[in-house]
Amino acid sequence: MTQLGVASCAPRVHVEPVGASTYSAGPQANDRPVAFAFDSLDDRPLSSSVLRGKPAVLAFVSSDDLASQAQAGFLASMAKNDGDRVTYALVAVEARDRRELVEGFRSFFETKFGVSLRTGMADDDSVRGLGPFGDVRRLSVFVLDAGGKVVWRKTGIAKPPEIRGAMSRL
C-alpha cells in the first residue's frame, strides 16, 4: 500500500476520531454568504471575498490524518482537471506551531499532482470548533456557490463524484 503523504509524531490538535460521515445538501439554515479569512501559506489570500465569483471547495484537514491526506489528493486531482473554473482550497485545522508540517503537506500534493491548492491555517476559533464553518475539527468538506453561500457539507471523506454532484446544482 502506498502512503499518501507526510505523517507526524507530534500531538494532534483534534481529539475526536473520524467516524461515520454525515452530509447535508441544499441551503443551510443561514442562507447568507459565509465570511472568513484564513492565514495563507503563500501569496494567494484565502478569504470569502477573494473566492467569490466562482464555485469553491474547501476541505478542513489535518496534516497527520490519513483521511485528510486522501481528501487532499482528491481535491488536487479535481483541481488539475477543472483548471480555473472552481477554486479548491485546504484549511489546516492545526496549531500555528505546526505550520511547517502543513507546508510540507501542501508541497507533497503540489509535487505529486502538479497543481497548487490554496492552503491556509485555520483561525483560533475554527481550531476550537467555533469558527464560521462550525465544528471542523474532523475532516469536513464544503462546497460554496459563486456568491459564497454554503450549498453542501460533508463530514468525513468526500469523493469526487459526491463533490461534483453538489456542484452540478450550481
Give the terminus-to-terminus CA distance. Answer: 37 Å
Order of helices and strands: EEEHEHEHEHEEH
Number of domains: 1
Number of helices: 5
What is the H level of CATH, i.e. the homologous superfamily?
Answer: Glutaredoxin
Shape: globular
- Uncertain stretches: 1-29
CATH architecture: 3-Layer(aba) Sandwich
State the share of residues found in helices, binned by percent. 25-40%
Assigned CATH class: Alpha Beta
Q: What fold name stands as the CATH topology?
A: Glutaredoxin
Radius of gyration: 15 Å
- Mean of residue pLDDT? 85
Biggest β-sheet: strands ordered side by side in the sheet: 1-8-7-4-5-6-2-3
SSE-based structural type: alpha+beta
Main sheet record: 8 strands, mixed
How many strand elements?
8
How much strand? Answer: 15-25%
Structure at a glance:
The chain is of the alpha+beta class and 170 residues long. It contains 5 helices and 8 strands, in the order E-E-E-H-E-H-E-H-E-H-E-E-H. The protein is globular, with a radius of gyration of 15 Å.
Give a description of the structure.
The protein has one domain: 3-Layer(aba) Sandwich (Glutaredoxin). The protein is of the alpha+beta class and 170 residues long. The chain has helices at 48-51, 66-82, 99-113, 124-127, 160-167, and strands at residues 22-25, 37-40, 46-47, 56-61, 87-92, 118-121, 140-144, 150-155. An eight-stranded mixed beta sheet has the order 1-8-7-4-5-6-2-3. Helix 2 crosses helix 3. Helix 3 (99-113) links the parallel strand 5 and strand 6 (118-121). The chain is globular, with a radius of gyration of 15 Å.
